[in-house]
């Protein structure tokens, strides 16, 4: 988990059931959303200075302030807007939001996973931001294109990206040295070679696993990068047909199954995984090579800064342009029916300024220094804020960290969003893919082709009901 993102809100690992989704849609269709900031009601203004000065109560759901970055950002907003009384509710779930919508008691701000954008926007829970953006001349060009795409639905932008994540390969250099491999010679576009290295890197004491070789994280939401990186597609261009059974997607899952089989099997890995502590498995040497999000760098800096490692971008299978990765993260949204939409919009704009992120970066840096740990910048969703943190807050640590910090923005710029993000049923489709496709194949309950065919049928049924 990103230690600096303020991540809270509904968990995408537990989306609403189909029945709950349909009940929620019915409630919304019944006129519960008397929006105070719906399209056409905002009104375009000649200049940004015409906007009312924010004041009054402002209720936010989903953003926690238990870490130095989130706390510093909130305090910076409150200094800038002393007439706004901000109330923060760190957590909520889908059911709570649906209840709030039905009772016309929504908060003013939502901190949401961008994968959920289409689902809530399609049910008219979220306010399109086009009028406000045009009125204030707000520059969205500084945000990563994939982040803006994730925060959009049906051609409308509903949220402003407030965090960013990516997927790269972390490699333990001591472990590679044990098998005589120079990390500079690793071609991450040669996926079969990655599996071979994984099998060689496993360390056992009798029947007991002491170190896993290569965790490609097919089991943990990373399958999208392997499927697309193999030339496959998870949905058609129109977004109305699931293609989990694409032969290239099947081939990617077969590769993933083989990777675990060559190391002793996925069930052996699942048993070994119970010994992991707080996502510190790479830093503690329990996994020699692992795919992970960018925040593994911060975990390693905190737990084992002396560990020799390299961070490598994964290439499409056989090489080619771009990276085998995808982006994700959260964003700020204004629900339709918000009581104080002007203050909510002022909050969103302020929280995405480079200056706000610099305040946050310096706060995190000070805390890390007090704890005797190096500072790793957050990824913000904004290209200019990321660059500002690198230039004005980050201090070089040593080559392994510096190279990774410089690599991340490059990988972000070359990473796509997940195809299912454009679908209102994204969370349900993701659940079907993992629970009915990937895990049964890894656990040898079904062959990959059959598992993905079953997941495809189930997901398509869910999609057709939306």
Detailed description of the structure:
The chain has 466 residues and is of the alpha/beta class. It has 18 helices and twelve strands. It has a five-stranded mixed β-sheet with strand order 2-1-3-12-6. It has a five-stranded mixed β-sheet with strand order 8-9-10-7-11. Strands 4-5 form a two-stranded antiparallel sheet. The relative contact order is 0.17.
Characteristic terms for this protein:
D-Maltodextrin-Binding Protein, domain 2, alpha/beta, 5-stranded mixed beta sheet, 18 helices, 2 domains, about 475 residues
Can you lay out the helices and strands and say which pair or pack?
Elements: H1 18-32, E1 56-61, H2 68-80, E2 84-89, H3 94-102, E3 109-113, H4 117-122, H5 130-136, H6 145-150, E4 152-153, E5 156-157, E6 159-161, E7 167-172, H7 173-178, H8 191-201, E8 203-205, E9 208-215, H9 223-229, H10 247-261, H11 266-273, E10 287-293, H12 296-303, E11 309-312, E12 330-333, H13 341-351, H14 354-370, H15 383-392, H16 399-413, H17 426-442, H18 448-464
Parallel strand pairs: 1-2, 1-3, 9-10
Antiparallel strand pairs: 3-12, 4-5, 6-12, 7-10, 7-11, 8-9
Helix pairs in contact: 1-3, 2-14, 8-10, 9-10, 14-15, 17-18
Cα end-to-end separation? 31 Å
Our count of helices gives 18
Number of domains as seen in the coordinates:
2
Record the strand order, biggest sheet: 2-1-3-12-6
CATH second-level architecture of the largest domain: 3-Layer(aba) Sandwich
- The CATH top-level class label of the largest domain: Alpha Beta
CATH topology of the largest domain: D-Maltodextrin-Binding Protein, domain 2
Overall 3D shape? globular
- How large a portion of the residues is in β-strands, by DSSP E? 5-15%
Q: Count the strands?
A: 12
Cα radius of gyration in angstroms: 23 Å
CATH-level-4 superfamily name of the largest domain: Periplasmic binding protein-like II
Which parts are unreliable, with pLDDT below 50 for 5 consecutive residues or more? 8-48
Q: What's the helix-strand series?
A: HEHEHEHHHEEEEHHEEHHHEHEEHHHHHH
Largest sheet: 5 strands, mixed
Which structural class should the secondary elements be placed in? alpha/beta
Mean pLDDT: 90
The helix fraction, in percent, is: 40-55%
